[in-house]
Amino acid sequence: MNPDAMDRIYKEYHSELYYYALSLCQQEDLAKDLVSETFYKAFITSNLPSGTFKYWLFRVLKNLFIDAKRKNREVYQQDIDRKPASDGFQESPPGRLFLKERNRRLYALLLKLEPVRYREVLYLYYYGQLSIKEIAKTIQQSETHTKTLLYRARKKLGKNLKEDSYEF
Questions:
Q1: Using the 8-state DSSP alphabet, how is residue 2 labeled?
Q2: 138 with 128: CB under 8 angstroms?
Q3: pLDDT in tens, 100-136
Q4: Is 114 part of a structural domain of the chain?
Q5: Are 31 and 21 a contacting pair, CB within 8 Å?
Q6: 42 within some domain
Q7: pTM (2 d.p.)
Q8: CATH number of the domain that 24 lies in?
Q9: Is residue 168, in this structure, part of any structural domain at all?
Q10: CA–CA distance from 145 to each of 7, 16, 79, 100, 139 (Å)?
Q11: What's the distance, Cα to Cα, between the start and end of the chain in Å?
Q12: Residue 85 located in a structural domain
């Protein structure tokens, strides 16, 4: 891959991949590492998929996250009472990105959403702007299951919004 193409791809997809990684692991350093490793794999791969490249990058990142999770199972165990890293939210990259209060609070609630698969499908759909078909491929589920998951995630996020006394 030529350097100009690599630079263009990095600029186009870096932010989306970073926020997706952050939504998965909720650790800025790990999210940066996952994105770096994703681009490294993309740049060394000789047969990149055409047309579905964006979703392919998301899938690679997800696989890297799963590998890291398996290697360090005790670090990434999902605990129901665990609080996501939301202290200092305004100083973090997502906080700077979402300057409006409504978006900042919505993103903070998204980061707290459990189980992780709900957070993941909402992020991929709204922030990653992937289609249902692309999300289904990324999470390795059927389109029907993905639609159901997205519906349930929206419903749960809506409930959390009401509990947070936040109205649109």
A1: -
A2: no
A3: 566 667 777 777 888 888 988 988 888 888 889 988 9
A4: yes
A5: yes
A6: yes
A7: 0.56
A8: 1.20.140.160
A9: no
A10: 36, 24, 24, 33, 10
A11: 45
A12: no
